Amino acid sequence: MRVINNIITPLNNVAAVAAASEKTGYNGLFSAEINNDPFLPIALAAEHTSSIELMTSIAVAFARNPMTLANTAHDLNEYSGGRFVLGIGSQIKPHITRRLSMPWSRPAARMREFILAMRAIWDCWHNDSPLRFEGEFYQHTLMTPMFTPAQRSAGPPKVKLAAVGPKMTAVAAEVADGMIAHGFTTATYMREVTLPTLERALAASGKNRRDFDVCCPFMAVSGLNEEAFNTNKQAVKMQLAFYASTPAYKPVLEKHGWGEVQERAHSLSKQGDWVAMADLITDEILAEFAVVCENPAQLSAALKSRFGDMVDSWQLTFDSGDPDFQQQLIRDLNAG
Q1: Distance CA 336, CA 329 (A)
Q2: Radius of gyration (C-alpha) of the chain in whole angstroms
């Protein structure tokens, strides 16, 4: 299992975190579009590392258009020497329309076309093909030498698509190089819903599962002492409650018979009662969504046991605060 560390940290910390992560043995680094730009940390990480993979997980595709995102991804891939992976996602309608003031319609169909448009742009730049992409949502039919990147040695970047439901999962299988499963998932949902959908779509597209990377930021609850364990546990419960309040993620809860939790969490989120939302996450729910290990020495074995046969990469969100422990955790996860 490949282990990808996060660089979700202030920009003035990114260089140090990136360099230390590469030295520690992480296989990759990921940034996220939460309350900061997702691409600036990647540029800094590229400057201060030499071999580690760099990925956005995720950048919001519908906040941009295929040309602007193709350009940014191309530049970062060139600058990093071919180490950049463009991880994108759709976000949900309220954020696209109300926070970002961008259009929203048929997200799976729009995303499919978005990725195909980027690939057409990269094909134009790297293979001197005419740019003639005319779709339902996006049209790109003009490219002149002045706007063609001068540096084109690294090739087009790989694309990974974030997916929760079956429609977006099928799009990922068809047009992306990998899939980023949502952290708000369970082993049962992955095994019985996500992976069968993915495998059917890969087969329909003539692709092999061995050539398709599945990664996920599975949550872990652990700590080197009781205080650290309890602090981490409460933080994970709050994060799970936040995800649970989103209607789009209700099917995951319904799979386990907890659909009413989503409705209650959504209601409390409208009231801004984040503490009460976290209380909705019982120990039973927590254990289903997160790997809970009071003994941190058992964490790697527990992660492998639950998810090792389903995913290729784990986006690490657990930090013990002890560099030696983190290094051993990564070695254990990478072994076998």
Answers
A1: 13
A2: 20
Task: Please state whether 309 falls in left (phi above 0), alpha (psi between -120 and 50) or beta.
Answer: alpha
- Rounded Cα distance between 21 and 44, Å, is 13
Encode pLDDT of 247-275 as tens digits.
888 999 999 999 999 999 999 998 989 88
What phi, psi does 220 have (nearest 5°)? -130, 140
Residues 118, 114: Cα–Cα separation, whole Å: 6
3-state SS class at 213: strand
Rounded to whole angstroms, how far apart are CA atoms 128 and 325? 49
What is the full DSSP assignment across 136-203? Answer: SS-EE----GGGS-S--SS-PPEEEEEE-SHHHHHHHHHH-SEEEE-SS--HHHIIIIIHHHHHHHHH
Per-residue DSSP letter, 88: E
How are beta strands 219-221 and 158-163 bridged, if at all?
unpaired
d(CA 257, CA 91): 25
pLDDT > 90? residue 14: yes
Band (pLDDT 50/70/90 cuts) for residue 174 is very high
Query: pLDDT for 185-196, tens place per residue?
Result: 999 999 999 999
Determine the length of the chain.
336
Overall average pLDDT of the 223-227 stretch: 93
Distance CA 118, CA 122 (A): 6
**pTM score:** 0.92
Secondary structure (3-state) at 334: helix
Q: What is the mean pLDDT of the chain?
A: 94
- Please give the single-letter amino acid code of residue 255: K
- Extract the tokens encoding 259: 């659909």
Token code pair at residue 298:
């058992």
Q: Are 161 and 180 in contact (CB under 8 A)?
A: yes
